[in-house]
């Protein structure tokens, strides 16, 4: 039986992303738990409001064309980042607060709801144009899709990001302004 193009392309990509998921799950609770990292720096992008970030790690991989990054993004009350994208494959996990995620363009993006004492982890698709509220432990895999994010709570919301990006490229780029962030 011949596999579809989606299966031939998506499955190897998914295998790589699963390895990255281990980083999101293990690294934040080991090395970053022992030290908080550098102080947050404001995100200076035209599409970002009331947001800051901490670069917790950046390591060149293989021939140096990709960099493995680990970052924490902090959204204060009313914080958001408008339409944007990233230059690689990222795994994002909500650390604290409530995070609104909206897929802007057609694409396939799944959200994994965290397991609880009463239920196993579940997956649900993101529907283009509809904001989905994510809670601590929820996660998603992003690979170049245009999306938005916002703090849905009155408290600070923190998001952990881990992934492989193209070396030398900014982690985030606003879509409408084409302005990269460092």
List the helices and strands and how they pair.
Blueprint: H1 5-34, E1 41-42, E2 48-61, E3 66-85, E4 88-96, E5 99-103, E6 110-113, E7 122-125, E8 131-134, E9 139-142, E10 147-151, E11 157-166, E12 173-174
Antiparallel strand pairs: 1-2, 2-3, 3-10, 3-11, 3-12, 4-9, 4-11, 5-8, 5-10, 6-7, 6-9
Classified by CATH, the class is: Mainly Beta
Q: Helix- and strand-based class? A: alpha+beta
**Looking at the chains present, what oligomeric state does this protein adopt?**
single chain
Q: Please tell me the overall pLDDT.
A: 83
Description:
Strand 1 and strand 2 form a beta hairpin. Strands 1, 2, 3, 4, 5, 6, 7, 8, 9, 10, 11 and 12 form a 12-stranded antiparallel β-sheet that branches. The longest helix has 30 residues. The chain is of the alpha+beta class and 182 residues long. The N terminus and C terminus are likely disordered. It has a single domain, classed as Jelly Rolls (Sandwich). It is globular.
What are the key terms here?
182 residues, alpha+beta, Jelly Rolls, twelve-stranded antiparallel β-sheet, disordered N terminus
Summarize the structure.
This protein has 182 residues and is of the alpha+beta class. It is 16% helix and 46% strand. Strands 1, 2, 3, 4, 5, 6, 7, 8, 9, 10, 11 and 12 form a 12-stranded antiparallel sheet that branches.
